[in-house]
Design a protein that fits this description.
The protein is α/β, with parallel strands linked by helices and about 325 residues long. The protein has 11 helices and 10 strands. It binds 5'-O-[(R)-(carboxyoxy)(hydroxy)phosphoryl]adenosine and zinc ion.
Length: about 325
């Protein structure tokens, strides 16, 4: 079983052999936080408390398994919101204690990577992972299970964060990623917004393009929200694709693995496949955004490697991958 409560989704899933999804239940808090235009941490933890037991029960029922059928309980321990992480961690500890199951703490970012194993067959190493979510834009070289080297990261806003801020500037609502994608489909890339290439570095920077958009909005120069959305999406995707493809070539990887909430963006998926010299692995959209199946999949590989935790397991809001 996997449990995920790091941000605003309360999720539980049952996965067999780290690859077969028996159930994948998600209670989204999007509508609750939309009222505030973003996630309110205190509201998120309270909502997790209300949702976690029903979601765990639904995951068990839908999978058609009993507690004694489970091999372990895996749970996200970071990075994320402290109060939210605690709800999942304590639930997992209670289940592990009550049913005598091994407890496996999972890094949320590593979880996003393992969505790949739920979606794609015959994955070979090394892999270049682009993790693009609300909090991260990381380029990670994965040489084997549990073996990561961080090659690049964002110096300011994460890709998803940039989408969310741009959507707010354009009055497109929250969450911003899907709103921008939808608006962009009806517009064209005519603003020629700036791209931060940071030549010689594998890092990203998305605050400049956001500020350029804000300035145009303040000066009343954005006549079309759909063209602005298309231009913004193109500027972000151009940089993500070009840098990822260049790093993939340099490190002679077998695959590029595109994961995290922003990886559900169809334009990014298309452009990456078009530009990459190697196969691009991309989980289906529901496995790109936060879910617990990816946590269970990662937990399976950690369990195989003997990486089990005890009931003293803690949460780490700023946990890193390597
Ligand atoms: O991985 P995720 O569900 O949660 C985190 O771990 O942060 O990612 C959420 C982020 C949000 O910033 C959201 O706006 C973005 O992913 N996102 C998208 C799309 N769907 C979600 N960004 C661009 N296009 C999308 N279709
Ligand atoms: Zn995430």
């Amino acid at each position: 079983m996997g449990i995920e409560t790091s941000c605003d989704e309360t999720a539980a899933a049952v996965v067999e052999d780290g690859t077969v999804i028996l159930s994948n239940k998600i209670a989204s808090q999007v509508e609750i936080h939309a009222r505030y235009g973003g996630i309110v941490p205190e509201v998120a933890s309270r909502q997790h408390i209300l949702s976690i037991i029903p979601i765990v029960e639904q995951a068990m029922t839908e999978a058609g398994v009993r507690w004694e059928d489970l091999a372990a309980v895996a749970v996200t321990i970071g990075p994320g919101l402290a109060g939210s992480l605690l709800v999942g961690a304590n639930t997992a500890k209670a289940i592990a204690f009550a049913h005598g199951l091994p407890l496996v703490g999972v890094n949320h970012l590593e979880g996003h990577i393992y969505a790949g194993w739920l979606s794609c067959r015959s994955i070979g190493f090394p892999i270049l992972c682009l993790i693009v979510s609300g909090g991260h834009s990381d380029l990670v070289l994965m040489k084997g299970h549990g073996d990561y080297v961080l090659l690049g990261m964002t110096r300011d806003d994460a890709a998803g964060e940039a989408f969310d801020k741009a959507a707010r500037i354009l009055g497109l609502g929250y969450p911003g990623g899907p709103a921008i994608e939808q608006a962009a489909a009806g517009g064209s890339d005519c603003l020629n917004l700036p791209r931060a290439w940071l030549r010689g570095s594998n890092d990203f920077s998305f605050s400049g393009v956001k500020t350029a958009l804000l300035r145009l909005a303040e000066e009343g120069q954005l006549s079309s929200a759909v063209d602005a959305a298309a231009s913004f999406q193109k500027a972000v995707v151009d940089v993500l694709v070009a840098k990822t493809v260049a790093v993939a070539a340099k490190h002679h990887v077998k695959h590029i693995l595109l994961v995290g909430g922003v990886a559900s963006n169809k334009f990014l998926r298309r452009q990456m496949v078009r530009a990459s010299p190697v196969t691009v692995l991309i989980p289906e959209p529901i496995l790109c955004t936060d879910n617990a199946a990816m946590i269970a999949a990662c937990g399976y590989y950690r369990l195989q490697a003997g990486k089990v935790d005890d009931l003293g397991l803690d949460v780490f809001p700023s946990l890193r991958l390597s």
